[in-house]
Automatic annotation (TrEMBL):
Native organism: Streptomyces gamaensis
Record-given protein name: NAD(P)H-dependent oxidoreductase
Domain named NADPH-dependent FMN reductase-like: residues: 53-116
A Pfam family per the record: FMN_red
Domain of life: Bacteria
Membrane-crossing residue ranges in chain numbering: none
Length: 199
């Protein structure tokens, strides 16, 4: 079966301590036909101002990776306001130039983390609004992971796993739906594995 390639992106660790571990936990070998590749968050995003050149070489590399992917998975801190400047820059890079943006029509899942014990009640976050405005095919609503510090467990060798089974099921089901949307968009047959919680 031909694999669906999902690209996982998050802010640098300076702005989001949970995004990269979350994506790495989800990228473990899973269901046949789906592959989540996590891009190392470019540290240049944490060192630049709002006037960074959208033609920056790192921006061009990100756009190329997003173009090659069948879908995207964006991890971000849960926030009622605007996301961190590094994530805004990343999304702006992917949105520019509008006519050639790899986000247009691309299935995108948004996963957010919070230290709080409960998920917020807001139906949409600013990251979802930005992606919708950019023309992405939002596979949502977002999945929120409360108590992120406890939901993710990182071992000394760098492996990340979920200590919250409920959070793992919600996340994996969201990945499954995103992969299904990517398959449909690419004209690929449905995945053989009908058990998304075993991704």
């Amino acid at each position: 079966m031909e694999n669906v390639l999902l690209l996982g992106l998050s802010s640098p660790v300076e702005d989001d301590p949970y995004g990269d571990p979350l994506l790495r936990a989800l990228s473990a070998p899973g269901a046949s036909g789906t592959r989540l590749v996590v891009s190392t968050a470019p540290s240049v995003l944490a060192r630049t101002g709002p006037d960074i050149d959208p033609a920056h070489p790192v921006a061009d590399a990100l756009r190329q990776m997003a173009s090659l992917a069948d879908g995207l998975v964006i991890a971000a801190p849960e926030s009622p306001g605007a996301p961190a400047e590094s994530l805004r820059t990343l999304l702006n890079w992917l949105s520019w130039p509008t006519a050639a943006s790899p986000l247009v029509g691309k299935p995108v899942a948004v996963l957010t983390t919070t230290r709080e014990p409960t998920a917020p009640s807001d139906p949409y976050c600013e990251v979802e609004r930005m992606l919708f405005t950019a023309g992405a095919h939002m596979v949502g609503p977002r999945t929120v992971i409360p108590r992120a510090a406890h939901a993710l467990r990182e071992t000394p060798d760098g492996q990340v796993s979920f200590s919250d089974p409920g959070a793992a099921v919600r996340l994996l089901f969201h990945i499954h739906r995103t992969a299904a949307a990517a398959r449909e968009r690419s004209g690929l047959p449905p995945a053989d594995d009908s058990r998304p919680w075993l991704l």
